[in-house]
Amino acid sequence: MSSSAAASRVVILGGGFGGLYAALRLQSLLRGRRDVDVTLVNRENFFLFTPMLPQVATSGLDTRHIVATIRRICPRIRFYEADVKAVDFANKTVTIVHSGARPRTLPYDQLLLALGSVTNFFGIPGLAEHALTMKSLSDAIRLRNHALDMLERAELETDAGRRRELLTFVVAGAGFAGIETAAELDIFMRRAARSYRSFTPADIRTVIVDAQDRILPELSPTLAQFTLQTLQKRGVEFHLNAKVAGADASGVTLHAGERIATHTLVWTGGVAAHPFIATLPGATSRGRLPTEPTLAMRGSDRVWAVGDCAEVLDAQGKPYPPTAQHALREGGHAGDNILAAIDGRALRPFAFTAIGQMANLGRHRGVAMVGGLKISGFPAWWLWRTYYLSRLPTLDKKIRVAIDWTLDLFFARDTVRLSLPEPKVPSAPALSANE
Predict the structure, then answer these.
(1) Which residue, of 8, 367, 384, 387, is most buried by count of CB atoms within 10 Å of its CB?
(2) Are strands 93-97 and 83-88 parallel, antiparallel or unpaired?
(3) Cβ neighbour number for residue 358 with a 10 Å cutoff
(4) Burial level of 7, CB count in 10 A (0-12/13-18/19+)?
(5) Domains of the chain: residue spans and CATH
(6) Cβ density class 119-155: b for 16+ within 10 Å, e for less
(7) Tens digit of each residue's pLDDT (9 = 90 or more) over 266-312
(8) What are phi and psi of 421, to 5 degrees?
(9) How far is Cα of residue 409 from the mean position of the Cα atoms in its chain?
(10) CB burial of residue 338 (10 Å; 0-12, 13-18, 19+)
(11) Active-site residue 180, yes or no?
């Protein structure tokens, strides 16, 4: 695709599952055409495969192997690494800016909003300041470095009570992200503890806290119970019907007044739409853009929304869940309808039934529900790996991840803690819009 004066201009904001797969769909559909120009904007120059973040955080996968350069994935699409500063629906323009650079205004004929979500702390005191999260690549690296730092500090600690606090790891949220993070973290910490002298793997304490009365509410009670029992046998503790009331540097307080002394709290308890969406006309009270069944923003024939920042309703009038699986499908469907709108063809309503839900529990164990079929143990673990390996966007990443998993069968996971000091170099002066 190359731009021309008469080309229809499509701008996609966001390079997560929704935005990337819309771009990939358009790239495929526009092969050989020169009348449509597609631009993708994302704050990083890579696509992050978020389902594998817990394994990066625990040295099961190399950091670089779950990211792919967007320009390589979408070679026929113009890409800008930038933040979105403004959207003007009336004048059909988007203003973007890269740090230290002048703002740039992009005109559009069709606009797709796929900015994703951010962690929702629900205003709980101390949570934003003291909790680790699992939304980005830097989050996974930060958790890994922090967890290893706790082991190093515990090795030096002479007070048994203080050491117990350092070796206690709390994960708040018992959905897929929380369960997978806790399972991988518990395995990683217990294995790493074998190399220390002041404590043993039995001293590692992993605690999962959730406000509901059961874990993995998206799965059947049978699979949830299998998960609970599997993790409990490893020594993982569960505090259910327990809301987090607050957090500070030395622990977590629950609503019932119970306090868990810890220096590690990982929050996976919820997400909210990207805050920029709430500033746009037509956004709901929850900060999402309501869409028509075609994925066009309600009341517009030029603006579209997919993924976590969109409120897409199913045939029963219920919002589709904000999962990668749905965002991926919505993105591809939006790509189809955007091109149909440009070509003057009829638009198709979006309808999708999830293929299934899966969770990786580590140690060759998993749970999955596929088409009503309940699977647990090794088959579910194998299915999880096979499916997500197939969804990686490039062949080289598939091969690299497969190699990482193979090596993990034979060698101990790396416990090198990479803590880089901030460089002491002068930064370039920011340019004003008029310079």
Answers:
(1) 367
(2) antiparallel
(3) 24
(4) middle
(5) 8-43+82-119+272-343 (3.50.50.60), 127-269+356-410 (3.50.50.100)
(6) bebeebebbeebbbbbbebebbeebbbbbbebbeebe
(7) 999 999 999 999 999 999 989 999 999 999 999 999 999 999 999 99
(8) -70, 155
(9) 26
(10) buried
(11) yes
CA dihedral sign of residues 295, 300, 304, 310: negative
The token duo for 421 is: 């000091």
| Catalytic-labelled residue, pool 165, 180, 292, 330 | 180
CB-CB contact of 298 with 291 (8 Å):
yes
In whole angstroms, give the CA distance from residue 215 to residue 69.
35
The arithmetic mean of pLDDT across residues 99-121, rounded, is: 95
**Nearest-10 crossing angle of helices 324-343, 17-29:** 40
Owner of token pair 């203003």: 95
Please, which residues have CB within 8 angstroms of residue 312's CB and are 6 or more apart in sequence?
291, 295, 305, 306, 319, 320, 326, 330, 350
**CA–CA separation, 364 and 11 (whole Å):** 42
Strand partners, 105: 95
Angstrom distance (rounded) from CA 53 to CA 384 = 14
- Using CA atoms, how far apart are residues 108 and 333, in angstroms rounded to an integer? 19
pTM score above 0.90: yes
Identify the CA nearest to 296 among candidates 332, 337, 327, 336. Answer: 337
Per-residue pLDDT tens over the stretch 274-283: 999 999 999 9
Cα dihedral sign, 193-384-320-397: positive
Amino acid identity of 265?
Answer: L
Cα–Cα distance, 215 to 228 (Å, whole number):
7
Identity of the amino acid at 347: L
Chain position carrying tokens 């797709």: 112
Sheet holding 264-267, edge to edge: 132-133, 264-267, 168-172, 205-209, 237-239
| Separation between Cα atoms, residue 302 and residue 306, nearest integer Å | 14
Gap between the Cα atoms of 258 and 260, Å rounded: 7
pLDDT value at position 5? 56
